[in-house]
Amino acid sequence: MFLINWPRRGLNMSLHVMDLPKRVVVGNGTLKYLSNYIGDLSGEESNQIAIITGPTLSRTLVPNLISNLEEFQYKIYIANKPTWEELKRIEFNIFHDGDPKIIIGFGGGKSIDIAKLISFRNGKIFISIPTSPSHDGIASLFASLKGYKKAYSMKAVPPSLVLVDMDIIAKSPKRLIASGVGDSLAKFTAVKDWRLAHEMTGEYYGEYASNLALMSAKLVLQKISGISEGDPDSLRTLIEALISTGVAAGIAGSSRPCSGSEHLFSHALDLYVNDEYSFHGEKVGIGTIMMAYLHELDWEGIREAIRIVGGPVTYKDLRMSKEDILKGIIYAKKVRPERYTILNKFNINKEFAESLAKNTGVI
Length: 363
Prior knowledge:
The protein is of the alpha/beta class and 363 residues long. The chain folds into 2 domains: 23-172, Rossmann fold; 175-359, Up-down Bundle (Dehydroquinate synthase-like, alpha domain). 50% of the residues lie in helices and 10% in strands. It is built from 16 helices and 8 strands. It has helices spanning 34-42, 57-60, 62-66, 84-97, 109-122, 166-169, 174-185, 187-201, 207-222, 224-229, 232-252, 261-272, 280-294, 299-308, 322-335, 350-359; strands at 23-27, 48-53, 73-78, 102-107, 125-130, 142-143, 154-155, 161-165. The strands form 2 sheets. A 6-stranded parallel β-sheet has the order 1-8-5-4-2-3, sandwiched between helices. A two-stranded antiparallel ribbon has the order 6-7. It starts with 22 loop residues before the first strand and ends with a helix.
């Protein structure tokens, strides 16, 4: 536990706790060392493990995972949807079957977020093993599921171990890689929103956390051609950038350095549009293009970077209608009214939304 931002003359004291991952391991073939790391975490108390993964990975990559867990008792639970109802179903089954000390999220955002929240709700050790660089929840203490009381991220628990096997990451589908790029570049607008909120409302703003998030986004932008070509070093930069932004959120004590108006747009789509196709990072990427325009950032450079890696830059790419995009813009500010962003500076109506989306080529 670290207490930061000690009071200075004339300023109010603001203290918060930094919740950070205990250990992060990135490299080739790291999965084969999993049992050693689990032994370090669990000691001799229990050898029961619950593994939460997706239906596709249960047939493809999970056999490789469990081959490294022969000395442990494990059960596999399939997460089909990123919803609160799915979490409750899996949570019930896990503790009906036993009382594991460790819960592993193995896969993408859905599996990792469900494992993260179940671990938090039940005081269990959480291990994050991403199989693609598609989102920044890999190492953060925040999780987001549909169907809860709110559409945005909620605090949970940071992983005790983040284990990234680059041999697996290198085989990620290009669409998932592009989603991770969208989520990484979102830090440009998220940090601008955070700084703006500080200036307009006095909200706490952390220079270190914001600069860590910005550095991650800048490095991804520099490596965009390599990421597009599947260059191993560039993909490692992307996954480490996603991990670093999760750490930045832990340092900040909030999702502020990672999530701003671009995420509000994405959450509005989750709430008001019937979308079963697009990934989180894809919607966030579109939102980043438009919010960068409002912030007078290099929105065209961000748009081009997303296009280079094959990510969506128009409503058609998301398989949405023009009206869907307009709904996302119009309702974004309403998703989280207490969070000040660039959207608070404008009267958001249909005319404004249409102009914004057209000016950035989204519609």
